[in-house]
Write a structure and sequence with these properties.
heterodimer, A: about 550 residues, alpha+beta, 3 domains, 5-stranded antiparallel β-sheet, 18 helices, about 50% helix, B: about 400 residues, alpha/beta, 9-stranded mixed β-sheet, 4-stranded mixed β-sheet, 13 strands
Chain lengths: ~550, ~400
């Protein structure tokens, strides 16, 4: 219900500005939509006029052909284009190699096709005939070849932009499993996925989003596995987004998610190619955004937050224990302080006698009510975490040490905080790191539950839990129920929830994601390994 | 649309306030404001008043950590506060004059009644303890040999709190099965049955040169809430055999040839009682089955033989028989149906029971017991043979 009100509020606010934005958009598009003229000087003049304040644009005019009778110009942006490549693959063939041409081979170099087919040693090029697409390609780093007498231009993409090398990602460190992670360059990211799935059905759909940023956005999915309606829905939602710039995949996430008013994420993100490949193979679609290593995957279910890639690389027994620990730690991280406050302020009779005496001893000199004490400690913890994240590493450690000493020891000795509260909050803090995907929701829930516990004790906490459960059960992510496979119950899906069953027993793809009537099996039957009994009997 | 949103907002706010007002359990109390009561004693005061002693945890002195202020001092970890009143509730509230805070009795482990209160009858004093919403029905009932306040003042050596120590003494009855724990709920339900007599552990103080210790010296027998007598340890176990509550314990068997003793540990015990009513003769068939282990022997003879085992088993069954008869004789003496035989008759012969219920006091001493005790030695623990010089062995 809160989400509904929230949406309502947002919608009303955005209505007025929407019309204004649309008008501006059409105005600017009008001038750039002109076709190119066949007059080189005119074209150059127009481009120069548009880019008049940019000092890093190079306009290089030259004559070429065996008799130097053709006029051409190369336009590129210094900072983006690779000059060495331009010299080697465009200028050298045009200026020198064309000199060698025999007089009798009289090619008409006013035709762009003739040049690209016969002279240039490049493969990644595009013919453009509109000023707007010329500018788009120029700004994306292509070198533009304009020829006098042709109303078309050649946009040549040369070399790669500067990008960092593939490294182990910082967010999802694994003990066993591939160490590579996505980087900022989206073409490398797609290559990483292609290397995992060498299938003809793997589709990569390109979108350009953001009026100013012109960011490349790709939808990657396997055509034979994905539900076509899902892709249609993603296309619809992406096309809806009319914003100036997309600087990170988080921008897109916030424009396409199902429940913007919910504290739970309905679009998952991850940094690891193997994880994305696994999700694509389950029938999901990945959304890759240029400029960020974080790839979005839809649809998302709640249980995904408790699964790690490594769960499937390790043998199932230990993993199942870890799963349960993750669920417990999420419960502790959201409910820990709330239950402590509810018990010590409202339901002292539920605490074992000896423990109650210990708690009372610890609280003896504490001047604050337990609820305030809990808020102070949680606030201090979140403060420490935030300070530690933003600071450079060496300073961050100092903050941690100071925080530990001040919060953990000094405040207890000074009688400001009871030692048990320190234990509760630190257990909560540690537990909150065990489920990284739900850290945001966990932190919000922790404060809500704590407030409810302070107001109405265990009753308030139960009410809060019920509200959370109702909300979770009502969430959808691109048509998939958020609590699937628990609600609605799906026995095949349950094999990978609280326990991770052996891989050979998980023979079906998640049905709530593919919604497919076709072949749901991802492996053959009876793959449980066993010794070859046939051979044994032969040897006897 | 807007109207609908508005309505749902109003509903939301309403629900929230209903949650706060209708739940009725918004009694927030900080732990600092609680006086945690772990035991209560009821004695007869002067002029017919009730003298109530509450044992409160003294949080400031029992703190394990060194206090920097040093103001707490080395006081006792508990505080026995006494007050007087015409009723127990009045006395409880009187205590706030001394503590400043309301007593928090949810953690009350034991209610100890003084001898004079027990003799007068517990019935009228129990009401508060059963009615108060904070009080647990599982709080133990005990009787002090003299004054309850004295028992509560005796500081145990290893435990910090006398009341918790007393509760522990009774909770661990299974080691000897010489006593039984009785809580408020059990006591009240046997009080309400009409014919069954109530029991409660009796606390005594042993005074030695320097120290005083508390021990459970037996069980007190009540009839209609009034104390009528006492069961010794062995008699109490006789009662527990019949009730099937024996958990463990020691059977001290003299060997038939009079040469020494075999000491058995009770491993498992079962009791089954079947009432048989023939005309006016009422007999109770009591079947006891016990499994024991040979835990100690005082002779050098090897007892681990089939013949010896049979003899020991017979002798130990005889001990069980004697214990039950001792308890039964005592109960006849008090004319108190501690076994709950009346209830058993009621269940099996409900028609006839209606006729004899009123005369149960006269009938009870006439009933017969038919005891059939069987014991079996199932192991000899770590030794197969006794430790003895080789030459004595055959």
């Amino acid at each position: 219900m809160l989400g509904y009100i929230f949406r309502k509020f947002l919608f009303n606010n955005s209505l007025k500005s929407k019309d204004k934005y649309m008008n501006e958009n059409t105005d600017t598009a009008g001038s750039n939509g002109d076709p190119l003229s066949s007059d080189l000087d005119k074209n150059l003049a127009v481009i120069k006029e548009i880019l008049r304040d940019s000092s890093d644009v190079t306009f290089h005019e030259f004559n070429f052909g065996h008799d130097r009778r053709f006029k051409g110009a190369l336009v590129f942006i210094n900072s983006l284009a690779d000059k060495e490549e331009i010299n080697k693959n465009i200028l050298q063939p045009l200026l020198y190699d064309s000199l060698m041409l025999h007089n009798t081979v009289d090619m008409d170099f006013t035709q762009i096709d003739t040049i690209s087919r016969n002279i240039l040693s490049v493969t990644d090029y595009l013919k453009v005939n509109l000023l707007s697409s010329l500018l788009d390609n120029l700004l994306a780093g292509s070198a533009i070849l304009l020829i006098h007498g042709s109303n078309e231009a050649l946009a040549v993409r040369l070399g790669k932009g500067k990008s960092r090398s593939i490294e182990e990602p910082g967010t999802e460190v694994v003990v066993r499993g591939p160490r590579e992670g996505f980087i900022e360059d989206v073409s490398v990211n797609i290559a990483l996925i292609r290397r995992k799935i060498k299938d003809t059905d793997l589709c990569v759909e390109r979108f350009v989003m953001g009026d100013k940023s012109k960011t490349d956005v790709y939808i990657v999915y396997i055509r034979s596995l994905v539900n076509p309606k899902l892709i249609e829905e993603i296309r619809r939602r992406l096309n809806r987004v009319k914003i100036e710039a997309i600087l990170e995949s988080g921008y897109i996430e916030q424009y396409i998610e199902d429940s913007p008013g919910s504290i739970f994420p309905t679009v998952s993100n991850c940094e690891k190619p193997d994880k994305v490949a696994a999700k694509i193979l389950e029938g999901r679609a990945a959304i890759l955004v240029d400029g960020t290593p974080f790839v979005l995957v839809v649809p998302m279910v709640f249980i995904e937050s408790f699964q790690s890639v490594e769960d499937y690389y390790a043998r199932p027994f230990f993993v199942s224990i870890i799963r349960i620990i993750r669920f417990l730690s999420y419960i502790i991280s959201t409910l820990g302080p709330a239950i402590y406050v509810a018990l010590t302020v409202f339901h002292q009779e539920l605490i074992p006698t000896q423990l109650l005496i210990s708690i009372a001893e610890g609280r003896e000199r504490v001047p604050f009510p337990a609820i305030l004490e809990a808020f102070l400690m949680l606030f201090a913890f979140d403060l420490l975490r935030e300070a530690g994240v933003r600071l450079p590493k060496p300073v961050g450690q100092t903050v941690g040490i100071v925080g530990a000493i001040v919060l953990g020891q000094a405040s207890v000795e000074a009688g400001l905080i009871s030692p048990i509260m320190v234990i509760v909050v630190s257990a909560t803090a540690i537990a909150s790191f065990a489920v990284p995907a739900q850290t945001d929701s966990g932190t919000v829930l922790r404060y809500i539950y704590l407030a409810l516990a302070g107001i109405a004790g265990g009753f308030g906490v139960i009410m809060g839990l019920l509200a959370t459960l109702l909300h979770l059960a009502s969430l959808r992510s691109f048509g998939t129920p958020y609590l699937w496979p628990v609600v609605p119950l799906n026995l095949a899906g349950l094999k990978d929830v609280f326990f991770r069953m052996p891989l050979w027993s998980m023979t079906k793809r998640p049905t709530a994601i593919t919604w497919d009537d076709g072949d749901p099996y991802n492996q053959g039957p009876g793959l449980m390994p066993s010794p070859n009994t046939q051979d044994n009997s032969d040897s006897q | 649309m807007r109207k609908k949103t508005c309505l749902s907002m109003v509903k939301l706010v309403l629900y929230f306030f209903m949650m706060l007002t209708l739940s009725g359990c918004l009694g927030a109390r900080e732990i600092n404001d609680l006086e945690i009561v772990i035991g209560m004693g009821v004695d007869k005061g002067e002029g017919g008043q009730i003298s109530l002693t509450a044992q409160i945890v003294n949080v400031s002195s029992s703190g394990g950590r060194p206090s920097s202020s040093g103001g707490g001092g080395e006081g006792k970890p508990f505080w026995n506060v006494s007050s007087k009143g015409d009723s127990i509730f009045e006395a409880v509230r009187q205590i706030t004059h001394m503590t400043g805070n309301r007593l928090f009795i949810s953690h009350n482990q034991a209610v100890i009644f003084g001898n004079d209160i027990a003799a007068e009858g517990l019935q009228k004093y129990l009401d508060f303890f059963l009615r108060a919403h904070e009080m647990r029905p599982t709080a133990l009932i005990l009787v002090a040999e003299d004054k309850a306040s004295d028992v509560m003042d005796t500081k145990p050596e290893t435990e910090k709190y006398p009341a918790l120590n007393i509760a522990k003494l009774v909770e661990t009855y299974g080691f000897t099965s010489h006593l039984y724990k009785v809580n408020m709920k059990d006591f009240a339900s046997s009080l309400m049955s009409g014919t069954t007599a109530q029991i409660a552990p009796l606390l005594s103080i042993v005074k030695e040169e320097e120290s005083e210790d508390i021990y459970v010296s037996g069980m007190v027998v009540f009839k209609d809430g009034k104390m009528v007598g006492k069961l010794s340890h062995d008699e109490a176990r006789g009662l527990l055999w019949v009730l099937g509550k024996v958990e463990s314990g020691v059977l001290d068997v003299s060997l038939p040839d009079g040469k020494g003793k075999a000491i058995l540990e009770i491993m498992k015990a079962k009791g089954q009682v079947t009432p048989v009513m023939e005309d006016d003769k009422i007999t109770f068939q009591i079947k006891i089955k016990a499994e024991t282990s040979l835990s100690e022997q005082t002779t050098t003879e090897n007892l681990a033989t089939n013949e010896m085992f049979e003899k020991i088993q017979e002798a130990s069954a005889e001990i069980i028989h004697q214990e039950i008869m001792a308890a039964f004789d005592k109960s006849k003496e008090f004319n108190a149906d501690i076994f709950g035989f009346g209830e058993m008759l009621h269940k099996k012969y409900s028609e006839q029971w209606k006729k004899i219920e009123k005369n149960w006091d006269e009938i009870y001493p006439t009933i017969q017991l038919n005891i059939n005790a069987e014991t079996k030695i199932i192991k000899t623990d770590l030794l197969k043979k006794p430790v003895s010089p080789k030459k004595e062995e055959k």
